[in-house]
């Protein structure tokens, strides 16, 4: 069960990192602003930062838990 949750967190972090669109990439940036997928750019950036930090903390917690149980 924990391995499935770890896999989901890994996929979640990959998706979140891909959503962090660089400002120089005009094609993806225009898609995000035209579709209003993530809201305004500043609130989207803040939300993605928070989600990324939470995902990383959960990932680190699961990794520590798996290492402790394997000993």
Structure write-up:
Helix 1 packs antiparallel against helix 3 (41-70). The model has no long low-confidence stretch (mean pLDDT 76). The chain has helices spanning 2-19, 26-35, 41-70. The protein contains three helices and no strands. 82% of the residues lie in helices and 0% in strands. The chain has 71 residues and is mostly helical. The longest helix has 30 residues, at 41-70. The chain has one domain. The relative contact order is 0.16.
Structural class: mainly alpha
Global mean pLDDT: 76
Poorly predicted residue ranges: none
Number of strands: 0
How many separate helices? Answer: 3
Portion of residues in helices? over 70%
Total tally of structural domains: 1
Strand content: under 5%
**CA radius of gyration:** 15 Å
**Major sheet attributes:** none
Kindly report how far apart the N and C termini lie: 18 Å
Order of helices and strands: HHH
| Bulk shape | elongated
A few lines on this structure:
With 71 residues, the protein is mainly alpha-helical. The chain is 82% helix and 0% strand. It has helices at 2-19, 26-35, 41-70.
Structure characteristics:
mainly alpha, 3 helices, 71 residues
Layout of secondary structure:
Layout lengths: L1 H18 L6 H10 L5 H30 L1
